[in-house]
Amino acid sequence: MSPIAEYLIAGLLLIGGAFTLIGAIGLARMPDFYTRLHAPTKATTVGVGAIMLASISYSSYQGAGIDTAELLITVFLFMTAPVSANILAKSAMHLGVKHMPETRGKPWDQ
Fold first, then answer.
1. DSSP string spanning the chain?
2. 79 close to 94: Cβ distance less than 8 angstroms
């Protein structure tokens, strides 16, 4: 494998790990449900996506070609994570889950 490919894969793994760690820390540290939902949804989706791209790149450089399962996992991750976060947020709004007083823009009060 060429050094450029190794650097690309290592970079994607580092980026993916960093975003996943940031999302996990955000989940633990944020004060209310809505911000806890926001942090892992955005950061972890990018993190897992970068890790999956690294896996696809590695398998294609090893000569195995692009694995359809890995590609489908990446596509479904990017499609389902925002939709499920939206459904969770709307459910929380309808149930009246408390939010931080500093929250700007209150669509549930309209």
1. --HHHHHHHHHHHHHHHHHHHHHHHHHHH-SSHHHHHHHHHHHHHHHHHHHHHHHHHHHHHTTS---HHHHHHHHHHHHHHHHHHHHHHHHHHHHT----TT----GGG-
2. no
Q: Encode pLDDT of 89-101 as tens digits.
A: 889 888 888 877 7
Q: Residue holding tokens 């694995």?
A: 67
Q: What is the CATH number of the domain that holds 28?
A: 1.10.287
| Amino acid identity, position 34 | Y
Q: pTM surpassing 0.70? A: yes
Q: Which residue is associated with the tokens 């790990």? A: 17
Q: Domain count for the chain, please give it.
A: 1
